Amino acid sequence: MTIDAVAGEKSGSPMMAAARQVAPIVMGYLPVGAAYGVLAQQAGLSMLNTVLMSILVYAGSAQLIAVALFAGGVTPVSIIATTFVVNLRHMLMSASLAPNLKSWNKWELALFAYEITDESFAVHSVRFARGDLNKTTCFGINAIAQVSWIVASFAGFLAGASIPSVEPLGIDYALPAMFIALLVMQMKNGLHVLVAGFSGLTAIILIKAGADQWSVILATVIGATFGAGVESWTKK
């Protein structure tokens, strides 16, 4: 009996296994996705653009920061460049999962990579580590997670029309809260903490210096260079 078959027996069916494993992600996506929808409506995006971003971009942190930059009147080039840098981590996540998917077709790999997020990456990493490579479960987890995000963003946009200001509800904190969570998840040692603090301080200095639109990108490049230099120096 194959590993896929064993996994299917233990969970009833591949889709039931997907629903069970994706449930925690859905519970997190509903409030954050709704917050994105509200902020998008407040920023002046149309319902079509708000939902299309959840379908085509499907990256919570990138969508939230894009909305914040759009509301601040930042140029499209700056928005695209900033979200590109923010999502560079997806290259590492895909590379980490790739060795487990050598037998998949190219179109399957493309579809799977398209729907990978930080949260689904964590779930798949655990599944693959225990030998669960069922394709139906893989795509089921991704699909359920994205649908929940799309529905939440749509509902949030509708609710945003009746919310004059998001500050009293604390919804505007969704963006920094998500980035703080992502940062904490990626800090594994003292060097990571040092680089994170240095990059944050650099971003503040750049903002004060007038580099509002490019502060995140420049701080990221400077911080990464600083971290690489420190790591090389400590190894020597």
At a glance:
This protein is an all-alpha fold. The chain has twelve helices and no strands. The longest helix has 30 residues, at 14-43.
Report on this structure.
- With 236 residues, the chain is mainly α.
- Helix content is 77%, strand content 0%.
- It has twelve helices and no strands.
- It has helices at residues 3-11, 14-43, 47-56, 60-71, 76-86, 89-97, 106-114, 118-129, 135-160, 174-186, 190-208, 215-235.
- The radius of gyration is 20 Å and the shape is globular.
Q: How is the secondary structure organized here?
A:
Layout: H1 3-11, H2 14-43, H3 47-56, H4 60-71, H5 76-86, H6 89-97, H7 106-114, H8 118-129, H9 135-160, H10 174-186, H11 190-208, H12 215-235
Helix pairs in contact: 1-2, 2-4, 2-9, 3-9, 4-5, 4-10, 6-8, 11-12
Shape call: globular
The termini sit apart by 51 Å
Structural class: mainly alpha
Share of helical residues: over 70%
- Sequence of secondary-structure elements: HHHHHHHHHHHH
Share of β-strand residues: under 5%
Cα radius of gyration in angstroms:
20 Å
**How many individual helices?**
12
Largest beta-sheet characterization: none
Number of strands: 0
Average pLDDT? 84
Low-confidence stretches: 1-9
